[in-house]
Amino acid sequence: MHAVILAGGKGVRLRPYTTALPKPLVPIGDQHAILEIVLRQLSTAGFTSCTIAIGHLGEIIRAYVGDGSQWGLAVDYAAEESPLGTMGPLLNLRDRLPETFLVMNGDVLTDLDYADVLRRHRASGAPLTIATYARKVLIDFGVLTTDSSKVVAFTEKPSMDYRVSMGVYGLSRTTLDGYTPGLPLGFDELVLDLLKTDNQPHAYDFDGYWLDIGRPDDYDRANAEFTTRKSLLLKGA
Fold it and tell me: Mind telling me which Pfam families this protein's record contains (predicted)?
């Protein structure tokens, strides 16, 4: 099994942590970088190879990870000369990729079964499988519904429930057909294009542990919880 880790972003939301370090290398706990945790998890799940798409401070990532052998992985790299979006780096890699593979952001902290995502993707026959997570958004205001300048309904500080993308996907190489290598391609654009052609992605619903470390609040939470979550995130460590 093969995975592509997207690690080329500038990590603007995590400044000043990311001024000197690429976001996937910011520390979690006292000993581990996020990217190290991800690579350990992929190896434990049975993945044998991985491509890391690098950009901002990418040489630091390359120096830290090397060839991946310390985690039992064969790691290679794809460098972005300019930002290509979430899916754009895959277009330049297309000929190097297997027919189905895992794609994930390099700042995800979760106990998701990556191998099962890829297995379910293969079984579904879908062009894209999106790992999803339930989020509740609290609105801190009274919400008004108006019609012709009249208030017709009012809800005090409602909450809204969504399923959001976890930043982990199963993808088929043929899904990238028709897109031009070297041009930006976002996850949002790819999903909208699939929906326009009635070629719906498959959802992999997950209710375990997940944090998007790109969010400062979640990064602080991850560090606070890591000691108690370590055995869950790094099985056998």
Answer: NTP_transferase (PF00483)
Measured between alpha carbons, how far is 8 from 24 in angstroms, rounded to an integer? 9
Angle at 132 between CA 237 and CA 32, to 5 degrees: 25
117-153 pLDDT, tens digit per residue, is: 999 999 999 999 999 999 888 888 999 999 999 999 9
Identify each DSSP E strand in the chain by its residue range.
Answer: 2-7, 27-28, 32-33, 49-54, 74-79, 100-105, 108-110, 128-138, 142-147, 150-156, 159-172, 202-206, 210-212
CA neighbor of 106 nearest in space, from 135, 64, 69: 64
Q: Classify 21 as helix, strand or coil.
A: coil
Give this prediction's pTM. 0.87
Residue 166, both tokens: 């976890």
Asked if 95 contacts 173 with a C-beta cutoff of 8 angstroms, the reply is no
What number of CA atoms fall less than 13 Å from residue 144's CA on the CB side? 7
